[in-house]
Backbone:
């Protein structure tokens, strides 16, 4: 078995076979000897190492260890050290094929920041064409200036030989790097000779160019400061959201008691297991957390990239995060689908009581009132209490209890009988299950003489799951019969009374008589 070593190349760590490492190390050492110890040589070596790292990453798609064959192939692509100092022919080597260009700001021949000359290199056109386009865009409500500044901020400057070769779409080889360095030295020498403007027009254009440069430089600084402020805002906001997300989903009892003391002790897990047909809440809480947290973390990461503008090979991390996010969405969708499937059919169970024989005398006004609610948390020493819509989830000694508020309506009787109908509704995966669930709803009321006392809540059996259970109470009154609505009924009266145009607060505390045209206040 071959011995492997860990090596840092271009800022990234690789596992390399020992013989491959020796060849690569000798190759780089020979390059350092030929290039010397100057700053330009160190920058060139850095570019070559980055190029080697890129090639290694592309070759390691299916392997984990760099082999000698990989190293030899990379050396063949880059060229041997003896190609430096003019030992190569002018013809293009077989492996020196054109590569995809990358967009950089070109400092060579630039007037302000090299944006136009960089675009000209990328699209293989004369820089004057790009400059004319930007001048024309200036008349489009200043769009050309905004676009120029955005490209100035977003596009890196081609400073190293490697970047300049990538800008031109030329292979990053030793011969091309040497050629790039030689051209740069010659250009610097020519620029020094041409540095001083010869006539008034050149001096004037140079002066205008300098003014434009410093104005755009100042605008660029403002943009960078603004970008840093945006980055800081994104990071702080998303960190707060991330902490709140963790707190609500996994430490809900602490967070809810902090924001709303009346629901102290309540947790998301309790709520989910009480409402869903699942044994553990992690099938809901974990997917929800991943669906929300992954974009939040991505924004935090983007904020750091905006502030520090660092390089990172985060493609694999992004792919993994996307796969995890999709898996979380699928898991949550399946869980919700299975829950929704158990709510597909709605059925009702009806219980009707004839009140005509129980009310004595028959012409006496019926009095309707509601009991005082008996779900006070402090009185019953409940562990928690949470109200959502018209339902209430309470827990005591680890036992969950769901209760709800019935709706009360008054309708005209089709005959001379006074009846009270209790309609229990529920959903289920089948008609039988839906009817069974509806029949299990617990509701109580009492009738004594002409007084009917309604319970303000209905309850479900202990640890029963939510199946959209509800109750409607219907009092059927024949014409001429009167009823007194106590003020305690205000929370039970349905807003949509079929035989009255009054609101519940306008109906309570008064007596009403059923007429041909509906309920009328008794005078």
Residues:
């Amino acid at each position: 078995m071959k011995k492997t070593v860990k090596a840092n190349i271009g800022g990234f760590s690789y596992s390399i076979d020992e013989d491959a490492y020796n060849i690569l190390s000798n190759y780089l050492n020979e390059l350092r000897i030929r290039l010397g110890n100057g700053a330009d040589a160190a920058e060139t070596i850095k570019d070559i190492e980055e190029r080697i790292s890129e090639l290694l990453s592309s070759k390691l798609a299916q392997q984990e260890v760099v082999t000698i064959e990989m190293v030899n192939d990379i050396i063949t692509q880059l060229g041997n050290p003896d190609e430096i100092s003019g030992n190569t022919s002018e013809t293009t080597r077989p492996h020196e094929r054109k590569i995809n260009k990358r967009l950089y700001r070109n400092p060579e021949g630039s007037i302000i920041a090299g944006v136009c000359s960089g675009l000209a290199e990328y699209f293989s056109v004369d820089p004057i064409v790009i400059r004319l386009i930007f001048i024309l865009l200036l008349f489009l409500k200043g769009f050309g200036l905004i676009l120029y500044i955005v490209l100035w901020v977003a596009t890196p400057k081609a400073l190293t030989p490697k970047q300049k070769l990538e800008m031109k779409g030329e292979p990053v080889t030793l011969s091309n790097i040497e050629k790039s360095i030689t051209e740069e030295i010659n250009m610097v020498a020519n620029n020094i000779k041409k540095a001083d403007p010869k006539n008034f027009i050149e001096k004037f254009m140079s002066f205008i160019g300098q003014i434009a440069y410093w104005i755009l430089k100042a605008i660029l600084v403002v943009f960078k400061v603004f970008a840093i402020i945006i980055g800081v805002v994104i990071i702080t906001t998303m960190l707060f959201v991330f902490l709140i997300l963790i707190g609500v989903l996994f430490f809900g009892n602490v967070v809810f008691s902090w924001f709303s003391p009346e629901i102290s002790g309540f947790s998301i897990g309790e709520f989910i297991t009480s409402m869903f047909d699942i044994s553990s809440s992690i099938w809901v809480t974990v997917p929800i957390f991943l669906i929300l947290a992954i974009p939040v973390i991505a924004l935090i990461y983007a904020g750091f990239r905006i502030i520090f503008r660092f390089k990172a090979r985060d493609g694999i991390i992004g792919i993994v995060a996307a796969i995890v996010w999709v898996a979380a969405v699928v898991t949550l969708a399946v869980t919700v689908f299975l829950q929704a499937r158990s709510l597909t059919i709605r059925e009702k169970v009806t219980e009707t009581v004839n009140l005509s024989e129980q009310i004595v005398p028959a012409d006496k006004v019926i009095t309707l009132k509601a009991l005082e609610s008996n779900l006070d948390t402090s009185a019953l020493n409940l562990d928690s209490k949470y109200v959502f819509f018209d339902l209430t989830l309470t827990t005591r000694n680890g036992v969950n209890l769901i209760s709800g508020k019935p709706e009360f309506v008054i309708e005209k009787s089709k005959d001379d009988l006074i009846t009270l109908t209790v309609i229990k509704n529920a959903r289920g995966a089948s008609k039988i299950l839906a009817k069974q669930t509806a029949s299990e709803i617990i509701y109580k009321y009492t009738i004594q003489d002409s007084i009917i006392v309604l319970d303000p809540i209905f309850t479900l059996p202990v640890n029963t799951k939510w199946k959209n259970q509800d109750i409607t109470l219907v009092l059927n009154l024949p014409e001429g019969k009167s009823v007194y609505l106590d003020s305690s009924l205000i929370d039970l009266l349905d807003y949509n009374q079929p035989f009255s145009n009054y609101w519940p607060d306008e109906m309570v505390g008064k007596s009403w008589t059923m007429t041909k045209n509906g309920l009328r206040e008794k005078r």
